[in-house]
Write a structure and sequence with these properties.
The complex is a heterodimer of chains A (261) and B (240).
Chain A: H1 3-8, H2 24-47, H3 49-58, H4 60-89, H5 93-107, H6 111-125, H7 130-155, H8 159-167, H9 172-202, H10 214-225, H11 228-259
Helix pairs in contact in A: 2-3, 2-11, 4-5, 4-7, 4-9, 4-10, 5-7, 6-7, 7-9, 8-9, 9-11, 10-11
Chain B: E1 2-11, E2 14-24, E3 29-33, H1 40-47, E4 55-60, E5 63-64, H2 72-78, E6 79-82, H3 94-104, H4 110-123, H5 139-151, E7 157-161, H6 169-184, E8 188-192, H7 196-202, E9 205-210, E10 213-218, H8 220-225, H9 230-239
Parallel strand pairs in B: 3-8, 3-9, 6-7, 7-8
Antiparallel strand pairs in B: 1-2, 1-4, 4-5, 9-10
Helix pairs in contact in B: 3-4, 3-5, 4-5, 5-6
Classes of the chains: A mainly alpha (261), B alpha/beta (240).
Chain lengths: 261, 240
């Protein structure tokens, strides 16, 4: 994940590129990739139902789990990100220090290590289902990045807005919630969409702890049938179709938001 | 209404305000002029503590701004401010711009706030724009909304920080007219502006600043016809 790029602009991400109407080339690339992936998958099933159809029948539970992890983690990450972002701009030294420390630590540890760590650390204290520990690990990691997105979004709102609100007698909290955050949401939404797609892909990492996500279901099938190449082909195509599908949805949502007003 | 004594404000080594003292009396209209960088905006913004002063004494409506126990929000409730760049809330309609602070700060009911807002929109001639978003308005209209937004809090003092400097020439008049109306209604006003015609017509007192100090102070007649200070003479000769 590119941290340097994030500092200069928050319109970056490492998810599948979100197509824009103006970006004709990318738009076409999206179409080729998306429909190509679906076509390939259908073709393989048709000409070689064994093992392709069997693989496809085996993995849907995994897709559901992948979505559970992704959705759970993104919601939690947004909450953590909001708190962290507010902490990073807070004048309260403790709050600010805690938020900064959190971001620094999380950014310095690979996600895979974090997942292991949180899974086993949590396991020592309380017995939680693997999927919950996976969601927490993903959210803790992405919350740090989300915090930076929130901070950048808030800082992108002109200082005059704060001054106008304060000069009307509003407290800094009222200013933040009535004036700054509602405007920042619009700026924050595209990078959050990117984070969502990145998180969806990174969720495959949770297959290393006992979470039966899409990748893990694939691994299970492959190790029983010894069809490694065929299975991972299907897994890769499914991930591709899902991320491309969501990048499109997010692109459309973004356009809606920017058209409004 | 305002008593400032020996106030000092520095940015690093630069002294934006250098031991400035002035008063603004109830109902008085004070116009502050001077070359750019002379400290006039800083002076105005120190009155509602958008700029925190380093030293000196600043009392606004009986509240001491240097006293750590003073709730600055309470001061700002009584002091309206109009900015060069309007600073309307773009995500809220004109009506919502006028009612927000009334509701969350003054704790008025929505109905009450809207009633007050409509009276003020009537006053600035923009009743028809109540449901519009600020982005759809001209600069002059936006600034009139910004004035109405401040007035909706029923302030005792209004600060204007170059309210017409960002406007196209044909829109300056409509904003100045609103300000003149306000002056006639007896509002206490402090105005930083380059509009000398306005200063002449409305001001009870003109303050001329240069290099962080008040260089000349007096009635408009005195200031525009017989300024005593060289710096003021030079400034007038350049702009008139």
């Amino acid at each position: 994940m590119s941290i340097e790029a994030k500092k200069q602009t928050i319109d970056v991400g490492d998810g599948a590129a979100i197509p824009r109407k103006s970006d004709r080339g990318l738009f076409t690339a999206w179409r080729i990739a998306f429909f190509g992936a679906i076509g390939t998958l259908l073709y393989l099933i048709k000409v070689k139902p064994d093992p392709y159809l069997n693989i496809l029948k085996f993995v849907p539970d995994g897709i559901v789990v992948t979505f559970q992890v992704t959705l759970g983690a993104i919601v939690l990450a947004i909450v953590i990100g909001l708190i962290t972002g507010l902490g990073r701009i807070s004048k309260n030294r403790f709050f600010n220090g805690a938020a900064s420390l959190y971001v620094e630590i999380i950014r310095g540890i690979p996600l895979l290590v974090q997942i292991f760590y949180i899974y086993y650390a949590l396991g020592r204290i309380v017995q939680v289902p693997a999927i919950l520990s996976a969601i927490i690990a993903m959210a803790v990691c992405y919350g740090a990045y989300m915090g930076e997105v929130v901070r950048a979004g808030i800082e992108s709102i002109a200082k005059g807005q704060t001054e106008a609100a304060l000069s009307l007698g509003m407290s800094s909290r009222q200013t933040m919630f009535h004036v700054i955050l509602p405007q920042a949401v619009k700026v924050i939404l595209p990078p959050v969409g990117n984070e969502f797609i990145a998180l969806l892909k990174d969720s495959s990492l949770v297959s290393i702890i006992a979470v039966a996500d899409l990748l893990r279901r694939g691994r299970e099938f492959a190790s029983e049938s010894f069809t490694y190449f065929e299975t991972y082909t299907v897994i890769a195509l499914i991930y591709l179709i899902i991320t491309l599908f969501f990048s499109k949805i997010i692109g459309v949502m973004e356009e809606r938001v920017s058209v409004n007003r | 209404m305002v008593e400032a004594t020996e106030i000092v404000k520095s940015y690093g080594a630069f002294r934006a305000l250098d031991r400035v003292s002035f008063d603004i009396y109830d109902g008085e209209k004070v116009v502050i002029i001077g070359p750019s960088g002379s400290g006039k905006s800083t002076l105005l913004r120190s009155i509602n503590r958008l700029e925190e002063i380093d030293r000196g004494r600043m009392v606004v409506d009986g509240m001491d701004l240097m006293d750590p126990r003073t709730d600055i929000a309470k001061v700002r409730e009584e002091v309206g401010m109009v900015f060069q760049s309007f600073n309307l809330f773009p995500h809220k309609t004109v009506l919502e711009n006028l009612t927000l602070a009334q509701i969350v700060v003054r704790k008025r009911s929505k109905n009450e706030a809207e009633e007050r807002a409509m009276v003020l929109l009537e006053k600035v001639g923009l009743v028809g724009k109540a449901k519009a978003y600020p982005g759809k308005l001209s600069g002059g209209q936006q600034q009139r909304v910004a004035i109405a937004r401040s007035l909706a809090m029923d302030p005792k003092l209004m600060l204007f920080d170059e309210p017409t400097s960002a406007l196209d020439p044909e829109m300056i008049g409509e904003v100045l007219d609103v300000m003149k109306d306000l002056a006639r209604d007896g509002m206490t006003m402090a105005v930083v502006t380059h509009e000398m015609g306005f200063a002449r017509e409305v001001a009870d007192r003109v303050i001329f600043m240069d290099a962080g100090r008040i260089v000349e102070e007096g009635t408009p007649e005195h200031f525009f016809t017989a300024p005593t200070h060289e710096r003021a003479k030079l400034f007038l000769s350049q702009i008139l």
